[in-house]
Amino acid sequence: MALAVVGGALLSAFLDVLFDRLASPELVSLIHGKKHDKLLQKVENQLIVLRVVLADAENRQITDSNVKKWLDVLRDIVYEVDDLLDEVSTKAATQKEVSNSFSHIFNRKRIVSINKLEDIAERLDDILKQKESLNLKEIPVESNQPWKDQPTSLEDRYGMYGRDKDKEAIMKMVLEDNTDGEEVSVIPIVGMGGVGKTTLARSVYNDGKLKQIFDLKTWVCVSDIFDTVKVTKTMVEEITKRPCNLNDLNLLQLELMDKLKGKRFFIVLDDVWIEDFDSWNSLTKPFLSGIRGSKVLVTTRNESVAAVVPFNVVKVYHLNQLSNEDCWLVFANHAFPLSEDSENRGTLEKIGKEIVKKCNGLPLAAQSLGGMLRRKHALRDWINVLESDIWKLPESQCKIIPALRISYNHLPPHLKRCFVYCSLYPKDYEFRKDELILLWMAEDLLKAPRKEKTLEEVGEEYFDDLVSRSFFQCSTLRPSSNYFIMHDLMHDLATFLGGEFYFRANELGKETKIHRKTRHLSFARFSDPVSDIEVFETAKFPRTFLQIHDEDSPFNNEKAPRIIVSTLKYLRVLKFGDYQSKLVLPDSIGELIHLRYLNLNVTSIAMLPESLCNVYNLQTLKLESCFNLTELPRNIQNLVNLRHLRIFNTPIKEMPKRMGKLNQLHDLDCYVVGEHKENSIKELGGLPNLHGSFSIEKLENITKGEEALEARIMDKKHITHLSLIWSEGNDDIIDFQIELDVLGKLQPHQDLKLLKIIGYRGTRFPEWVGNFSYKNITSLYLHRCNNCCMLPSLGQLPSLSDLVISNMNSVKAIDAGFYKKDDCSSVTPFPSLEYLHIYDMPCWEMWNAFDSEAFPVLENLYIERCPKLRGGLPDHLPALETLIIKNCELLVSSVPMAPTLQRLTIGNSNKVAFREFPLLVKDLRIEGRTMVEFMMEAITNIQPTCLQSLSLKDCSTAISFPGDRLPASLKSLYISGLNKLKFPVQHKHELLESLTIINSCGSLKSLPLINFPNLIILEIKDCENMESLLVLESESLKSLNYFAIERCPNFVSFPGEGLCMPNLTCLIVYDCDKLKSLPNQMETVFPKMEYLHICNCQQIESFPGGGMPPNLRTVDIKNCVKLLSNQAWVCMNMVTSLEVCGPCDGIKSFPNESLLPPSLVSLHLRYLSSLETLDCKGLLHLTSLQELNIERCQRLENIAGEKLPLSLIKLKIYKCPLLKQLCHKKDRQIWPKICHVRGINIDHRWV
């Protein structure tokens, strides 16, 4: 079945762009004359003739390689035509008035353009001749076919069908205690691509029952290109909910181990392809720090993955295809809108059920086809899908699921181009909706909007349409956010369709080959940056240079940006990432006349060349977190097409002059008010179309309210988040009335959702702050408004859910005015507030909580560092779950009545009182003598049954637990600064899993570990009298995973016999002056140990006899001179990562020959204060060594021996001044020994 009634060929949307350009008055006027007019008409006619056969060609390319070659040649020419027409149009727009003195230059460029166009016309003639020989059929183009989908929600509202029994089975395995004695169990879900493994895992992950069992959960997509660093970092970030800047695997794993320590966790590893045991082992090391009952759910297409998992596998669960009936439900829910009941529905359902039978039980296929047919109501459309020839293709010719290919074929042409463009992203990459739209816009993939719409809104419609058709899916990790992913099979489809025109590299090296036809380049991750740019020799026409990850640069060559900019003249998208060496943009950036998108986020750039202002077509300029950049180009107002300027977290001192001329700006995240008229706040009045988040800084430069009024903030109805910021240190001479007037004139539109006021210098707030007319405000922040004596009335904001108040240095009381104004007496104050945080209020004395009905849904209350606060907390908070009170030394108020309270922290607030002990509290953290004493008494009297985690700090009096027992339900105990605490050692504590003792229990000389049989984490620190650990030979600490003993000067030895910790993975020994040796027979005592850290243990001379743990991979040795001088390291031949840290006085040369284990992959030398010579003889036997880091070795100036190991890939030298100087000079005694290393980095700069 041909494609006469489907969306149309991908190239036809491209041709629409060309036709628009060919018809533009600028082009016609530039290439004027009878002969040249005919040339333009000829090219246009050629393209019109070719357009009508594109649909047939796109259909036949699947089975006919000659048609595919013909289509690729045409596609290549179309790209060239577009580049030429874009160049001519740009010249016409920028040179409308050409002076006589430059007319000859202009005419010369005109002649070049005409010559190029004549050449293109000749090549198109050849293409037309080949068209006849290929017998391509003409299929009318349906240019007026409606494409826009009916409005739909982006959330997955369609549900899951036919998987109830599957989910029930998985949930049973997840919730049951089936650990078989091990801490972590794995549940693999195995099934073919598109069968719904991720959907099922997502349903399990989001099930509310998990909250009752697991302390934390996280989801990470592993993907086919396995990267332990990336996956580990993702887990850390998801658990902590904040960015992680670590890139060292060892440090990342320690961080993850710390976060999982003592927790029962649930982790989903989605889309796993790893079949290598060592890779699995490396990834999952930190999991062992969790407690028994932790579960890992794995989705994979390959059952052999389950065979190499280094944990107990509960059961491999095979997920089969759906029945036709269930597959129909998936299809129908996407194909038929709930509110629609067309006259053909019965017939359509009958055809639909036949289509579903061809989906082979794959929900992804049914979902995709259903979404595509959702907007088709004619019977012919449905019959065409049912009878499509694609269903008949043999498997050898169709690696892509036929249903997905059919869904693609039915996309409108403009959506096809947008979808294929996404092949630049790596598999399983989470991309932002708004970011992708900017890229589409830069590549001219968006149709010019009608007057009432913006380009960005057109892009949103395209994006939402692709989501509704299941080409994109919401991110599982961030389902309610702006992040999306493509299913693997959709990604395969996009990659196949992109062909040679799209190039995506995960690793870039000399062997990399980029095709001449390639127009779009993306680079993902670079573990081994290359020093030359030879890879671009064959690619002269790329439009896209996209570095996916900010933190990794593909090049260690400082000249790379200059070479890229000067070589790739047709770029429309350019994104550089973090060049550890200083990034410098060349002046030739101004010659990139096609450039529309420039992203320099998180780079070291310090200055933008003024020539950048010549890039007429530039639409997007991103400069976020460029910490060295303090000013924008002087003539930035010349960028008349600029729509997006992002400078968040970049220290711009003031805006350039005449910014108001950039009236196309759609997105400006920050405006820094200048001191001059031409960069004052008035310039904002010329920017009426600002959207989204916007902050105005240095508001102290406004001298009168009329200036603020000219900014017309009230008229900017599309701003949803507004921050008004005055700088610190400008409080000397202030006219408070002017300050009030300024803030009053900065009143925003009433559709605002978030408001921040920082550093306001007035004594009171204007009436609009907190006015009930702001019904959409959900978040409000007041910070550093030092002159305000009272808070604004905020209680009548109906949607306010988050409120943060801090550093209001003149506020002494929170009273009735905070809750409501006189004219709002019937309103319940703060009806929607869920989170309230008040901190750093040095003069706040009283909280007059007069309204007992206030805060009906408040869940989280934080009060910190309010030293003069005496009382008046709310009496009753019915929804409160978390209460944190810290450093409020004078607070004498009672803790609010909170029947749902589960987490309570009181620190250095010893006068806080309790009406009664919160019986449901699970996590209790108390600091200070009075409060600790009260809590110990309360625990004695109440004997709480829900308490799971207890932290007690800083109590100097003699106290003890009731009956010499810990609370029966307790799983985690943290005690610090309780030196007179009598620790309960007479009874077993079966449930305790984590125990930390710091500077406490002074009478405790020996800890009987047998009383804590299920302990997973044990930390003993700063216990001066602790001498030993007691164990019984018949018992083993089978659950212990993490053990640290630090700063215990009298700790003499580990038990000589009976010590058995079969699941210990990490041992840390720090500052134990009298300890002479590690435990003997570590091979059998700690068979699973992977990490060993020894620091400042000067009496330890050697590693123990009897063998080292077979799984030991990482060893850190810090300031242990005797141990480093010993030659007996042969037993360490399983270690792959070693860190040696000083000062280690007296060690002048390192390492001695044959000292280090030959298995080393990475070696780190740090703070060796006496080290003068790095001895290559001691490194030559390290044939697996890939990375050598040398840091802060101030005296190091010599490299002895022949050369560093040939296996070495990276050499990083940091703050070694003598060695640095020699390397930069390429000293004859040094440079020949290191120059073979591919990546040499000195003080964060590649050499």
Explain what this protein looks like in three dimensions.
By secondary structure, this protein is α/β, with parallel strands linked by helices. Among the domains are: 10-133; 164-318, P-loop containing nucleotide triphosphate hydrolases (Rossmann fold, 3-Layer(aba) Sandwich), CATH 3.40.50; 324-487, no CATH class; 1005-1111, Ribonuclease Inhibitor (Leucine-rich repeat, LRR (right-handed beta-alpha superhelix), Alpha-Beta Horseshoe); 1113-1247. Helix content is 26%, strand content 17%. It is built from 31 helices and 51 strands. The strands form 8 sheets. The chain has a 25-stranded mixed beta sheet, with helices on one face. Strand 30 (923-927), helix 27 (929-942) and strand 31 form a beta-alpha-beta unit. The longest helix is centred in the N-terminal third of the chain and has 31 residues, at 103-133. It is globular, with a radius of gyration of 34 Å.
Estimate what percentage of residues fall within beta strands: 15-25%
Largest sheet: 25 strands, mixed
Percent helix range: 25-40%
Head-to-tail CA distance between termini:
59 Å
Rounded to an integer in angstroms, the radius of gyration calculated over CA atoms is: 34 Å
Class by SSE composition: alpha/beta
Spans where pLDDT lies below 50 across 5 or more residues:
1-7, 97-106, 143-155, 507-511, 526-532
Number of H/I helices: 31
Short description:
One of its GO terms (molecular function) is ATP binding. This protein is an alpha/beta fold.
